[in-house]
Amino acid sequence: MSTAVRKLVHLIGFSALLIALAAALNFAVDPLQLLRPARFYQPMYSNDTRMQNAGLIRSEDFDTVFMGTSLAIHFRQSDIDRILGVRSLKLAMTGSNSREQSFVLAAALARGPSRIIWQMDDWIFRDAPDIDHNDSFPADLYRKNAKGVAGYLLSGAMARESLWTLARAAPPLRNLATRLTTDSLMKFAIPRVDDIHVLAPDFDVAQDYNAARARASFAYLTDPSRSAYLAEGYAFEAMVRNFERDAVDLIARHPDVAFDIYFPPYSILQFVALRDASPATLKIVYDFTGYVSRRLATFPNARLHDFRGARQITHDLANYRDAIHHSPAIDLKVLSYLADGTYLVDRTAPTAPLRWLQAQVEAYRPETLAQ
Amino acid sequence: MLFNSYPFIFLFLPIVLLGYFALGRTGQPAPVIWLALASLLFYAVSNWQFVILLLASIAFNYLIGLLLISRRLSGRLRFCVLTIGVAGDLLALGTFKYAGFLAANLNALLSTGFHLDILLPVGISFYTFTQIAFLVDAYRGRVAHYALPHYALFVTYFPHLIAGPILHHKDMIPQFEDAATKRPNAHLILCGLIIFAIGLFKKTCLADGIQPLVALAFGSAAPTFDQAWIGALAYTFQLYFDFSGYSDMAIGISLMFGVFLPVNFNSPYKATSIVEFWRRWHITLSQFLRDYLYIPLGGNRHGRVLRTLNLMVTMLLGGLWHGAAWTFVAWGALHGAYLCINHAWTRFGPRSTSRATTAAGFVLTFLSVVVAWVFFRADSMATAVTVLSKMTDPTQLTFGHTEMIGLGQVALYAAIAWLAPNTQAIMGYDHDRRVVGESVGAWLQRPGFIYAGAAALAFGILGIQQHSEFIYFRF
Fold it and tell me: Taking a C-beta distance cutoff of 8 angstroms, is the pair B89, B131 a contact?
């Protein structure tokens, strides 16, 4: 064997050894709890929910799943449990589309929950890439197939998290490692599941959620140079197709699971912005949500709660940080309305709440904004 | 297919290498055809819809090249053939890359309603430029007759196809014709693998590692002073490690096949002037622009005014080559202006080679480059102006935990870019002499060197994320 060949063998061999060591470390520690729930160390969690959910589904006990977008991301599981009397698992994902949500829900349904609470709006049903062509979504982690597990075990970032987890478990390093654990440095930096994506206790809600910000958002949306974006991705037929594929199919395949679906309380400004800057899009929103309301009414295991007409919330702009995102206080109101069914849509008149909304939107005058 | 992916590293590359050397025993042209087919497969895996375009481009340019080489045509007719060839290439490039941009600007100017949604074929800028150079050289009588498989491989050769380096036919085709490259050379494979490992480490650990910081400046929220600087600096280093990592990987892979690719980066952020920066950054593009645009325009042969004009035109078109957007035009214009100022300073400024002058030149050059990268990275001119205005407004500061850690990370990357030797220096890679590993002979003999290379490879593989394209794939 020549010197170069010997060196080549050494190089490849040592490289393989290092990779095998990292994979073994990831397998043993399993920081995502993908392979088994953590028993010998204090698990930590990540705000990267598309990745984190794959582990939560396998490691947590739950009978209810809470799904949604950024509008559902700040809910506390403990609040959901307390108000609704369930054992919940929040799997909301910021900016998620119906394909992603349906895929994650299907994975969670394999664990046998009895109830799904689903924050649903027209926006999630715009066309989106297939789950396997979505670069930001680790579908194989959920499938736990060879590719997904190999990618997980062969991840240097995970090996770093595994080492850090070990450091936090080792008494001499515990204090230092715990103090240095922040989401700027580490992926898994949250000590409790309940704290995933919730606002920090010292978060200044009033500064972030106020009427001035809501009005500024309205001005931004209705600016002629940007208003074209309001219509982006809105096509009635495509949205209906996506709704049937991602929501109806899931509901129909799980008749023993209760689906509590709710339209979130956007501020009235969102619809007024559409009315003023993109009426064709508003018509699609009305037509589509009317279709959804009628369709859901046909499933005995599905209940729709429509909060869009909840005037006491939607007209109080202090509840919002833009035209759609509501404050944590409204999270609690949503949960209590879900519990007592205040905004439950009557199956015999599924589009009645839509008509209330339309009346409110038509009546809302821009001069109201100045108040 | 991406170099930084498991299928490429564990499947595609080993199979293609084995096939190439196995067929190498049968003599020409089987290994060349094998490599060309493998290159097409490499391209087709993620860009199958543009394979026909690539093949049509090769056929078109090869035929035009044959006409130009045959020398049976008269001078005027030859020029017409060249014009048709170059125009055809530019038409294809213009259609796929610039038609949408043109339509958007017409709409803005004339309130028309043109809407073009054309997908950009990956690598089109690179393989178009490569072939234009071939046609121009054929017209100038500097090209021998090449067999079609060798020409096809020259264009499609997968290490460079997507994002360069921009190859020259006179450099590459003789290597493809050389029988020695068809025999496995353990020394070249070893050195190639280490260079590939360094490139992979740069991409997956360094470039992808700093990428989240870029959002501090270019994210949805307006940045503060510190965030704007950290984000702009993070992008400065991300782009360098991403693109030079890709180039290293291309050179390393090619070396395993016994083929030496030209060096594309030579520690550009160590430059002490903009002129020097452009001798160190994306070297093959600079050479192309110099040989096939700047010099044909007249270069510096017709006085200072025309030289300035030629420089500006060259850099503006160089900017536009990167992408169909005004931000790239602004980036090119800035660099054109920098170069003009640099030349004027060299001519009229005080002559000094003191350490202080060199240090000042280094700092000024780096800052100028960072400012220009803001235009290069920004989604729009408005974003670029916002980020730059924030970079000049120290009254607004965040400097929280994220910013402090980000600053530390940027400092670490700066230390690597400024103080560490570059890949060709580490490996003793000399493209012109076709040697590698000689000048570092004793170093290469040490076990530590091999283990460091192995660690780079291991960390590079462990750093592979789900999907992380190279920035220059967009160009």
Answer: yes
If you measure CA to CA, which chain B residue comes closest to A157? B463
| Minimum distance, in Å, between the CA of residue A28 and any CA atom of chain B | 17
- Chain B's closest residue to A156, CA to CA, is B462
A residues 167-186 lying closer than 8 A (beta carbon) to B:
182, 184-185
**Of the candidates A333, A357, A316, the residue with the CA atom closest to the CA atom of residue A121:** A357
Is A122 in contact with A270 (CB distance < 8 Å)? no
Whole-model pTM: value is: 0.86
CB B283 within 8 A of CB B266: yes
Handedness of CA B68, B69, B75, B77 (dihedral sign): negative
Within 10 angstroms of residue B199's Cβ, the number of other Cβ atoms is 26
Name the residue of chain A whose CA is nearest to B7's CA: A147
User: What was the ipTM of the complex prediction?
Assistant: 0.86
Which residues on B lie below 8 Å from A13 (Cβ)? 454
User: How many contacts does A have with B, using Cβ atoms within 8 A?
Assistant: 74
Q: Which residues of B are catalytic?
A: 322
For B276, other C-beta atoms within 10 Å of its C-beta total 17
Strand ranges inside B107-194, DSSP E? none
8 Å CB contact of B457 and A15: yes
Q: pLDDT digit of tens for each residue in chain B (475 aa)?
A: 889 999 999 999 999 999 999 999 887 789 999 999 999 999 999 888 899 999 999 999 999 999 998 867 787 888 999 999 999 999 999 898 888 888 888 887 877 777 777 788 888 888 998 999 899 999 988 887 788 889 999 999 999 988 778 888 889 999 998 988 899 999 999 999 999 999 999 999 999 999 989 999 998 788 999 999 999 999 999 999 999 999 999 999 999 999 999 999 999 999 999 999 999 999 999 998 999 899 988 888 888 888 899 999 999 999 998 988 999 999 999 999 999 999 999 888 888 778 888 999 999 999 999 999 999 999 999 999 999 999 999 998 888 888 998 999 999 999 999 999 999 999 999 999 999 987 776 666 778 889 999 999 999 999 997 666 677 666 6
Residues on chain B touching A14 (C-beta within 8 angstroms): 450-451, 454-455, 458
